[in-house]
Write a structure and sequence with these properties.
- The structure is a single chain.
- The protein is mainly β.
- It is about 15% helix and about 40% strand.
- The protein has helices spanning about 5-15, 55-70, and strands at about 25-30, 50-55, 75, 80, 85, 90-95, 95-100, 110, 120, 125-135, 140-145, 150-155, 160-165, 170-175, 180-185, 195-200, 205-210.
- Strands 6-12-11-8-9 form a 5-stranded mixed β-sheet.
- Strand 4 and strand 5 (about 85) form a beta hairpin.
- The radius of gyration is 20 Å and the shape is globular.
Length: about 240
């Protein structure tokens, strides 16, 4: 094979990974206390999700194609480990599959009663776990029917352009189409933050200051709508 042909193949590969005209969006998320005063104490910015939704029909069609590629790959995973759900926050495209392996030597019962995406995996032991497909965009609150402290969130989005920030709150979204759209920052302890943007964006990164107003572990009931500590409830505890 000649050197020029190898170079051509490399160029074609690069183009397939980074489509011509694809944009990047840089930004930083800051979690602040009530009233916007100071950094929010005890809150983890890495539990945020940032995503971009293109406005034009052409861009939306490209996004749908990219999302289909994500769905066709391996399922996303949320693992029960050390009586926690890991990761605590997970973004998936609409129609994405999530598997729930159990790494603990005890039983768990992962469930959600969130409208449109409710599910109940039942009690299951250590192993590869079960799989759920999420068809409806929106927030899925995930709990364990055995351990009330186990809380996690799956955000089902109608876009393939999503990411979680680094420890310092910085994020990068890549492969975005040119044109207008909406940028959203979601975090479990606050209301979603949104802004309309036009790509390509300017050189300055976007800063999202998000006010924390909710506790990390919200009060919730079991899968039957009862208190975890109600008399007569299944007493399985580990």
């Amino acid at each position: 094979m000649s050197v020029p042909r190898i170079g051509l193949l490399l160029l074609l590969l690069a183009a397939s990974l980074h489509p011509l005209g694809a944009e990047e969006l840089h930004g930083r998320i800051e979690l602040v206390g009530k009233g916007g005063k100071g950094a929010a104490k005890g809150s983890d910015v890495r539990q945020a999700i940032v995503y971009f939704e293109p406005a034009s029909a052409t861009s939306a069609a490209s996004a749908a194609s990219a999302a289909a590629s994500l769905r066709a790959g391996k399922p996303f995973e949320m693992v029960t480990r050390g009586k926690e759900l890991v990761p605590r926050v997970l973004a998936v495209p609409r129609g994405g599959r999530v598997r729930f392996p159990n790494d603990d030597p005890i039983l768990h019962n992962v469930f959600s009663v969130s409208p449109g995406n409710a599910f109940d995996l039942g009690l299951y032991k250590k192993g590869p776990g079960k799989e759920k497909t999420f068809e409806s965009p929106g927030l899925v609150r995930v709990y364990c029917n055995v351990h009330p402290s186990m809380v996690a969130y799956i955000l089902v989005v109608d876009t393939p352009y999503f990411a979680t920030p680094a420890e310092d709150g910085t994020f990068v979204l890549t492969g975005l189409p040119k044109g207008g759209g909406k940028l959203t920052v979601w975090h479990e302890q606050t209301e979603p933050w949104t802004v309309s943007i036009q790509l390509p964006a300017g050189p300055a990164p976007i800063t999202a200051k998000v006010e924390v107003t909710r506790p990390q572990v919200p009060s919730h009931l079991d899968k039957n709508g009862k208190s975890y500590f109600a008399s007569g409830r299944d007493g399985y505890r580990h």
